[in-house]
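ARCHIVE CARD
Drawer: 12
Card no.: 0347
Subject: one protein chain, sequence and derived structure
Cross-reference: see card 0346
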Amino acid sequence: MCKIGIKSNEKKTFTKIPNRFIDEYMADANGSYLKVYLYIQWFLSQNRDFSMSEVADRMDYAEKDILRALRYWEKKGILEFTLDADGAISSLYLRDLTEAEPKAAASASEQTGTRPTLTRAPESPLEGLIRSVESRLGRPIGSREELDLLHFLHEELRLPEDLILHLYQYSVEQTGTNYGNGLNRYIETVAINWNRDGITSLADLENAHAPYEEAVRLYRSVFTRHDPVNASQRAYINKWTGEWQMPLPLIEEAFRRAADNGTASCRYIDAILKRWHENGAQTSDDVARLDQNHAEQKQKLENAQKNGMMNRGRNSSSPNQFHNFDQREYSTDDWAEIERLMLQRK
């Protein structure tokens, strides 16, 4: 049998990946983190600098995904990086994994000559979390984006497992779906908001959501509603209790004013609370002051209209087709209806 000769014009260049990286670190990392590590090793083999945007473009990732991977490897002790005054990475140092580790003390089997007992390697904490999330979603997790998101929640935001599971269940209920980029974006946005607000446990979350839950209870009580609030109503109540942080007594007062006018429209209630919010009302006294100012302005408007009609009557030299009818008189109920319509248009 003759031998087959093999030739190639390939350049004799390569990127070294330490065996220790494969043995100790590769199994626990997801695919995107491995790709970032390999790219860094490639740049190192080329002896050239790189930028975050360059790596992101080459890998078709967002820069935040690259930074997330670098932070993961930093926590694993494989690399270190420094930041400049603007918070951007200015330098990166890769640990040499080819260095020999200190030899461990002799095992009991080496000392006694007995046969060692084989034990299963401990499971990664993220593996158990993945299975729990899959149970909440009712489907397996396999995409890079979903695994990256779980790493972000668990490793970077440091959210406990029970809070992460609640986040997934809550997000599915709010979005109406258990898969897709829309769900992932919603989960990430909510998690970042919780991190900003210092929510690190289910107890923190319960305390933060207490005003919302109480506002929902008041809405259903004042308007005698037994059905759950819908998505539009939830959005309004979230704005009043969260974004505007309106006190619950004022929210209840707005509900009662709407009920007195025969409407449960959140748009109508929103117009009332918007005026109070924009004028800095925080107490019932503040609302009373605004009501007094509003009443005075309305009275001035009524007086101005009456004076205008009287002046037009005196200045008319002779009756004509535009004045041969009785001028309408507006009652208090008429003005209340006009005010309600104006509030709805805001």
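Annotation on reverse: The chain has four domains: 19-94, 125-199, 203-282, 289-313. The longest helix spans residues 284-315.
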